[in-house]
């Protein structure tokens, strides 16, 4: 699959939070095909909440989001339940686009196989997910989103609980998949040192409550990332 549209999502004046309390100032941003964007900020700053709002799970307080299709969201800490092969897990994740009897179209079944192949996990298709490594399972979760032919995939802390090698592997997978297919990824993470060099741009919810978007250069990404810290001497190198 190769995404043809360049413009995936546009947000204007967006705030999220609770009645009478926005978690950050009104945000304006766009996401384009093939981008892999890091969303960073302190705990409680609104990272998960804005992802849920984009996915249509939570309402906006203010503003408007223009998007061609509701994107899938991969939450943090999906349990690896016994009794599901990787293939059946990915097919089950596609239930929302099945027919009235719960059957997937031949196109969706083919897309699931293609997604596993493209992420290098086709050889694990018949393995029980309970026996997969955390990194392998996270790639399976990404494959479940790609199988739905979504133009945008949202991930909440995809590198949480992973060891150093698997963190790099998953982040590299996001970047490579975005470049190859045109699918855009927006992911939250506290693993900024690993994620910053591998992402296209950075969205940061600053310590001052301002939502900022960086350019693509490492200098611009650094400048944006630093707004979430009180210590401004931290540098992330390309």
TrEMBL record:
Residues 3-233 form the ABC transporter domain. The keyword Nucleotide-binding applies. Belongs to the ABC transporter superfamily. It holds the Pfam family ABC_tran. SUPFAM superfamilies: P-loop containing nucleoside triphosphate hydrolases (SSF52540). InterPro entries: AAA+_ATPase, ABC_transporter-like_ATP-bd, Metal_Ion_Import_ABC, P-loop_NTPase. GO terms for molecular function: ATP binding; ATP hydrolysis activity. This is ABC transporter ATP-binding protein. PANTHER family: METAL TRANSPORT SYSTEM ATP-BINDING PROTEIN TM_0124-RELATED.
